[in-house]
Amino acid sequence: MMNENELRDSGLLEQYVLGQLSAEQEQQVEEVLQKSSELRSQLAKIESDLERLAKENAVVPPTAVKSGLMNEIDTLETPVVSINESKSNKSYLAIAASLALLFGVSSFWLYTKVNSLEDDIRLVREQKDALEDDFNTMVAEYDDIIQWNEAINSPDADKYILKGNTLSPDATLVSYVNNTDKSVVIDASGLPELDADHDYQMWADVEGEMINMGVIPKNTEMLAMTYIDNAESLNITIEPAGGNDHPTVERLITNVYLEP
């Protein structure tokens, strides 16, 4: 025999409201309900909650559907059958709850689909932006390559190879000096990597005075340096990171004399 605690904790009240119990189970539930005002209050609350949920998710049908349905009902000779009010309420609530669940599932499915589509659109836009950035980068790099090739292949450019001394025997730097365009371009890919506290710096010797041509940033290959008029030689030294206002002669690693 079903008791009050079992009915309260088993979820049978909800199933009773939705009409999901067998006839035997319904009879047992009703017997317990007759003895417990607390359970009857709980049952009323469940019915009220389901009815409210159904009304919140109700959809008003088009007027034409309602008119057509009423006309069909008028043409039928339907016998009047007396039904138990409690059973009627339960059937109504069961249908209402089912409709509410259906609308809830549909709404959640649509919400999920919309969010998924928004995510897909956002991903496509991000990919498009990334491709545009890559394309712009490739275009810029291509333009740079064209400019470097034009500079080093100019008939007015003189090529000078600076090889490392005993301080840095593996060092190599190629310089292209164009006295017509007054430009200097170097290929610094052959310089050994320095630590974070030091940089390479280039100098032009003009009548015994060393004039700064610029610092060579780390991980740099092709680079335009400052052109100095009447330079007699090009010189590379190792200086503190960021460069120096005068060359550290004892850290000169390579130099080359320019043709007059």
Short characterization:
The chain has 260 residues and is of the alpha+beta class. It is 48% helix and 21% strand. The protein has two domains: 4-105, no CATH class; 157-257, Immunoglobulin-like (Sandwich).
Q: Spans with pLDDT under 50 lasting ≥5 residues?
A: 78-85
Q: Which secondary-structure class do the elements indicate?
A: alpha+beta
Strand order of the largest sheet: 1-2-3-6
Largest beta-sheet details: 4 strands, antiparallel
* Number of domain units: 2
Mean pLDDT: 79
Shape: rod-shaped
Number of continuous helical runs: 6
Number of extended strands? 8
Order of helices and strands: HHHHHHEEEEEEEE
How are the secondary structure elements laid out?
Layout: H1 4-9, H2 12-17, H3 23-35, H4 37-56, H5 63-75, H6 85-152, E1 157-163, E2 172-178, E3 183-187, E4 198-206, E5 209-216, E6 222-225, E7 233-240, E8 252-257
Antiparallel strand pairs: 1-2, 2-3, 3-6, 4-5, 4-7, 7-8
Describe the structure.
With 260 residues, this protein is an alpha+beta fold. It folds into 2 domains: 4-105, no CATH class; 157-257, Immunoglobulin-like (Sandwich). 48% of the residues lie in helices and 21% in strands. The protein has 6 helices and 8 strands; from the N terminus they run ααααααββββββββ. The strands form 2 sheets. Strands 1-2-3-6 form a 4-stranded antiparallel sheet, with helices on one face. 16% of the residues are buried. Residues 78-85 have low confidence and may be disordered.
